[in-house]
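Supplementary Methods, section 5.1.

A reviewer requested that the exact input to the structure prediction be made available. We therefore reproduce it here, unchanged from the version used in the analyses.
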Amino acid sequence: MCTSLMNWILDIRFVDIATAMIAASIAYVAWSQYLLSKSKFKLDLFEKRFKVFEATRIFLDAASSSGGPTSADFDNFHTGNSGDKFLFDSDISDYLTEIDSKASNIQIGNCSENLQIESLAWIQKQLGGLESKFRPYMAFESWK
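The structure derived from this sequence is encoded token-by-token as follows.
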């Protein structure tokens, strides 16, 4: 009787230990999956934001060239930054709207020559500061 009681106690302890180990393993896998999905979300968001950045950079290059942006450049810019309101705070959305407005001023016949020159100078200046404008949304260290 004592032997069977001892075996019963040992069986219970083994089952309890095994259950606890399985539960800990499952918790570890769940935590790993959480971290992985969080990283995947950041990567997906980065890729979408980078497309907007790239479309803006290409458009600024085209707008600062001689003759200003073509209607195809405007189409590519609008297509490339569609959804920006969902990907960025209002500062970037407002910035993209301002780029669009200034680029429209460059086109011949839209406004005075002075406004065209000012708008072209503004567009050319944006090429140098584009990365710093987008950096808070693109840096993985301090995700925004």
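The two ends are 67 Å apart (CA to CA). These observations are discussed further in the main text.
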